[in-house]
Amino acid sequence: MSFYAIGKRTARKDSVAKVTGWEKYASDIYLPNMLHARVLKSPFPHAIVKKIDTSRAEEMGAIVVTFKDVPDKLFCPRLVSTPDATYKDWKVLTDKPKFVGEPIAAVAAETEELAQIALESINVEYELLEPVFDALESMKEGKPRIHDKIMLNDKIIDIENNVACRLELQEGDLEEAFKRSDIIIEREFRTSRGYHNQLEPKVAVVNPEPDGGLTIWCTTQTIHNTRLLISEIFNIPVSKINVKKLALGGGFGSSIQTNIVVPIAVALALKARRPVRLAYTKEEDMHEHSSYQMIFRLKIGVTRDGKLTGGFMENIMDIGAHQIQAYPLLGTCAGWWVSLYKLQAIKYVGVAIYTNKIPSCAYRGYGNPQVTWAVETIMDELAEMLGMDPIEFRLKNYVGERDLFWGQGPTVKSIIKSCGVEEILKKGSELIGWKNRPKPGEQKGRFRRGIGMARGYHTSSAGAPIPSQVIDYSGAILKVNEDGTVDYITGLVDQGGGTLEAHAKIIAEELGLPLKNVNIVAADSQTTIYDVCTHASRGVYAGGGAALNVARQVKEKIFKLASTILNAYPHTLRIRPDEERGQAVIYVEGLPGKEITLGELATLARIKNLGTIAAVDSFRPPACPPHFTGYFVEVLVDTETGIVKPLKVVIGADVGTVINPDLAEGQLHGGFIMGWSRAILEDLKYNEEIGDIECRGFIIDYKMPTAADIPEEIKTFFVETYEPTGPFGAKGLGEGAQNPAIAAISNAIYNATGVRFYELPITPEKLLEKLKEKEGRKLAVEDAVKLT
Amino acid sequence: MRADYVNLVNTHTVPVRFMYHSPETLEEALRLMREYGGEARVMAGGTDLIVDMKLRRKEPKHIVSLNKIRGIEYIVEEDGGVRIGANTKLRSIEKNSIVRERFEALYEAVRSIASVQVRNMGTLVGNICNASPAADSAPPLLVYDAVVKARSIDGERKIKIRDFFKGPGKTCLKDDEIVTEVFIPYPPGDSASTFFKISRVSMDLAKVNIAILVKLSSNVVEDFRIALGAVAPTPLRIPKAEEYLRHKPLNEENLNIVEKIVSEEIKPITDVRSTEWYRREVSKILVRDALNSTIKKLVRT
Ligand SMILES: Cc1cc2nc3c(=O)[nH]c(=O)nc-3n(C[C@H](O)[C@H](O)[C@H](O)COP(=O)(O)OP(=O)(O)OC[C@H]3O[C@@H](n4cnc5c(N)ncnc54)[C@H](O)[C@@H]3O)c2cc1C
Asked: How far is B77 from chain A (nearest CA, A)?
């Protein structure tokens, strides 16, 4: 298919503002008469506040709020699930902190320095409770209770053994499937906790309005859910709360929920009757959210000819001290698992466990990178046991076109309509030199080369043909200006990946507009219709679908209006971009002269009082089609230091139609680097003595690779597919871009060294230890041979 | 133990009240140091000090900045070595041709520190005065037998670099002393030196760092100096290893023994960056790698 705007490499509309520092993020918002806030946090992982004395802070003139001043109401900061699947265990400020860093009180003063002094003057007496830092420990009988009673929707529920929630699924006859199997493999996997390290730490600026309402500028992936939640907590009518849309410095899932800074700043602003700015430092941000640690037990059967039979998966998740979206995550993890490869029978047990750690939330891939790591490790092992090529083995079993797809868990099912898996694997293996890869574990010498691969996918949105437990729809407003440009008004937040740029191209394509004629205009929750959130790789697919939906309606209206003016039937009209005139031109095919530019048309409409051409509509994506990716990674292992270097990376992707090629490649590059980091570096380890993360929130001790650490060549390619339900055939990419990375890297390390890892990250320390163990044992065997 | 730092640290500001002094002469700076003594801190580039203050590891009441003092920013050859002033930025050292040609290990060490931005601010003198066990410039300065010049109102003191470090964050400097320069004697002719570092990512403090200097004479080691960092409370020379290898041929057997001595002489700990075991293991391989690389340099010239 040939496109005019889609697929072209163009400079982003926001690029100048971004590179010059002109772009406005939440932290750039300063209001006259504004106060600056600081939050008092628990220095203990599990405690009860016995006494709190804020008098000195108040004497200094600071505004102070404590747990006594906020609504005594449990809530869930994330409103993506339907109410019946929403577990509530949060309070704005608490008197029973459950992790180091949990907010207890907050102050606001004329400057941040004064707020800091006021904060330090608050005296708190704590009663200490025993903390627990390990999920498997925490769920044992007799452990300290982290939560007593929480709420599911509007029902109070009891928490036993720190089990936050659970989900069990079963399909088919697993016993029979295992009986039919020639090989059954069973492994336990343990992932690490990671920190999102999005560039922008959380910020909220709140302005109390004279009518009792609020205007809010904050770090968020969803302006509409933010206003719904603030309304719910503070009992302020939704319509009186306006949340402004701003540029976002990345999220990676950490702002799907409304960040705690927002309700805290609201509480302060309501009390002060003045604007309040609360900006977290990086250190505070790292005490606000992390990824989930998952402990999987995975058992899979296969017949001798390489057909998978059935599988069992246990997923124990350490969710930290609060639920953000543990329950839906239990569902998606099952979904990620069963939608990778065809299993005739499955059993899944998912349990989410509370610990006294920083609360976990979605982190790029929402469990998929972890599940894919486990499954793709096992697929690699099984292929070797069967003596089959790992790629051939995968092709024999993968879930592809026309198969049922579980997308975002058991309640979100649809049929796959586009799939480029085969092509990805074929081309990727050629580009990496798969045929010439070393045999696992056969190399000698200090430096060993290894090639590993893994494949995966992610959903594009959480859409489905029928309602599910996940809310997923978007909406947009499109209006034609008198100069022939259009204003695109959407509540959908661009996390920085260029989602709205893609929408602009979709609109330009549909309306035959020069790209520059699509204005992405300022928006807020008052002037837009509902969009759920920019997450689940839905920005281009679902949000772009909404943009296309209104563009089509606008086009129809344009033709209707133009038909009277050009004296032609609406259905005979066409529209094309005229770059020279800088306009869209509406014309009748084959009849020169029968044409009018969009600007002329809109102007005429005004003079003749015919109205503004505009459309507003919501859009529900009918499916959540998987976008597929394949990773091929070549590494070099230094067996004397355990240091692994990436030599060459090849990533193939099927995202349907590629709308922004540069940005799509960027997603893949970033996906690899993030995956590399999660595979070999990142781990928010706990220091049980202080009850806090070992790095104490200091980024200097939470390392991530920089440009100097990545391979010179990351080769990316896109295979051609067309998703019939997507805007101009497009699907998502953000999460699939990373999902198989960890697995491919760990398979490459195995290929180089013969050492398998079932625990992340694979640090040089761990790798060296395993290598010494292995080679040591080998030596011992050789010695034994000599002796006999 | 309580994690009070979650409330006390505020990296948006410097959450410490202090007086900032910006004297224009060294004499004035020395006078201020005498006056405020233990309550004052010298500041050069501030890339360690300001971070420490933000993290409340240090809460000085007075900061005496060296920034406005003229005449202490230089790299000059003199008296059989090179003198580097207290205000001299790491970036200038890395760009200096004498350093690059004659002090390879120092050049390699400085280049491995942080990023260009930080090296544009930070100084060599600040790096050693901060006395981190992992300070990257320390192992090279140790193998070159550098001399630290410190001044107070009472006069100047010359301190051998080997005597300078006293523990993590501790030097032998008195409260009122300011280091004015580091003097680095030329290494012996026909010798070569190398710096290596293992870290979590390329921009990071070391898990282990090492500098060695070798002079060969007809395949026998004539001079051998070795220093490691991040493996003990201070960066340290390993005299036992040096003595062992001197006047011996560089062969596999001797190399094994040197590695063994090094791994026995260091006292690494487990911390956020690595483990005791790992540090000991890779110290051995670093000795080997650094030697290999140095021999290559000798062969080349
Ligand atoms: C992002 C980042 C990365 C870094 N990476 C590295 C790295 O890889 N390797 C490494 O070794 N370091 C690293 N550092 C630490 C730091 O940059 C260096 O130690 C630098 O050399 C310090 O120099 P400075 O001039 O900034 O010192 P300052 O911060 O000004 O001073 C440091 C200490 O020395 C004292 N001091 C300074 N000058 C004098 C003087 N003339 N007399 C007496 N006392 C004095 C100060 O009082 C203070 O205690 C890093 C720092 C940052 C922020």
From this structure: 34
Does A89 reside within a domain?
no
Which of B1, B4, B7, B132 is most worth mutating to test chain A (most A CB atoms within 10 A of its CB)?
Answer: B7
Range of the domain at A597: 15-22+473-619
CA distances, B145 to each of A521, A612, B138, B164 (Å): 65, 82, 10, 11
What end-to-end distance do the CA atoms of chain A give, in Å? 72
Q: DSSP labels for A666-702?
A: HHHHHHHHHHHHHHHT----EETTTTEETTTT-GGGS
- Minimal CA separation from B75 to chain A, in Å: 29
Residue A727 lies in a domain: yes
Q: Does B13 contact A642 at a Cβ distance shorter than 8 Å?
A: no
> pLDDT digits over A247-285, tens only?
999 999 999 999 999 999 999 999 999 999 999 999 999
pLDDT at A784 over 70: no
Query: Could you tell me the distance, in angstroms and rounded to a whole number, from the CA of residue B123 to the centre of ligand 1?
Result: 6
Q: Which domains does chain B have, with CATH numbers?
A: 3-65 (3.30.43.10), 75-185 (3.30.465.10), 191-300 (3.30.390.50)
Using most ligand atoms within 8 A of CB, pick from B51, B61, B129 the residue to mutate for ligand 1. B129
Instruction: Report the C-alpha gap between B1 and A177 in whole angstroms.
Output: 53
Tell me the chain A residues in contact with residue B8 when contact means C-beta distances shorter than 8 Å.
Answer: 120
The answer on pLDDT for A786 being more than 50 is: no
Alpha carbon A29 to its chain's center: 26
Euclidean distance between CA atoms B140 and B225, whole angstroms: 10
**Cβ–Cβ below 8 Å for A100 and B200:** no
pLDDT of residue A776 exceeding 80:
no
- Cβ neighbours of A692 in B, within 8 Å: 3, 6
**Residue A653, domain member (yes or no):** yes
Residue A405 Rama label (left phi>0; alpha psi -120 to 50; beta) = beta
Residue B299 pLDDT exceeds 90: no
Measured between beta carbons, which residues in chain A are less than 8 angstroms from residue B18?
A: none
Q: Minimum mean pLDDT among A126-130, A189-193, A404-408, A713-717: which range?
A: A404-408
Both A597 and A649 in a single domain?
Answer: no
Q: What are phi and psi of A424, to 5 degrees?
A: -60, -45
For ligand 1, residues with CB inside 6 Å are B 41-49, 51, 66, 86, 90, 113-114, 118, 121-123, 125-127, 129-130, 135-136, 173, 178-179, 205
Number of inter-chain CB pairs under 8 A, A vs B: 92
Residues A659 and A698 in one domain: yes
* β-bridge pairing A686-687 and A643-654: unpaired
pLDDT digits (tens, 9 = 90+) for B162-207: 999 999 999 999 999 999 999 999 999 999 999 999 999 999 999 9
Closest CA to A35 of A285, A234, A267, A283: A267
Predicted confidence (pLDDT) at residue A787 exceeds the cutoff of 80: no
pLDDT of residue A180 exceeding 80: yes
* pLDDT tens track for A520-559: 999 999 999 999 999 999 999 999 999 999 999 999 999 9
- Arithmetic mean of pLDDT, A205-219: 98
pLDDT of residue B301: 67
In-domain check, residue A554: yes
Residue-wise pLDDT for A60-105, tens only, equals 999 999 999 999 999 999 999 999 999 999 999 999 999 999 999 9
- From chain B, which residues contact A within 8 Å (Cβ)? 1-13, 15, 51, 55, 198, 200-205, 272-275, 277-278, 281-282, 285
Q: Give the 3-state secondary structure of residue A254.
A: coil
Do A630 and A776 lie in one domain? The reply is: yes
Q: Give me the CATH number covering residue A501.
A: 3.30.365.10
Residue A641 has its nearest CB partner, among B15, B55, B285, at: B285
| Shared-domain flag, residues A645 and A614 | no
Task: Say yes or no: A636 and A562 in one domain.
Answer: no
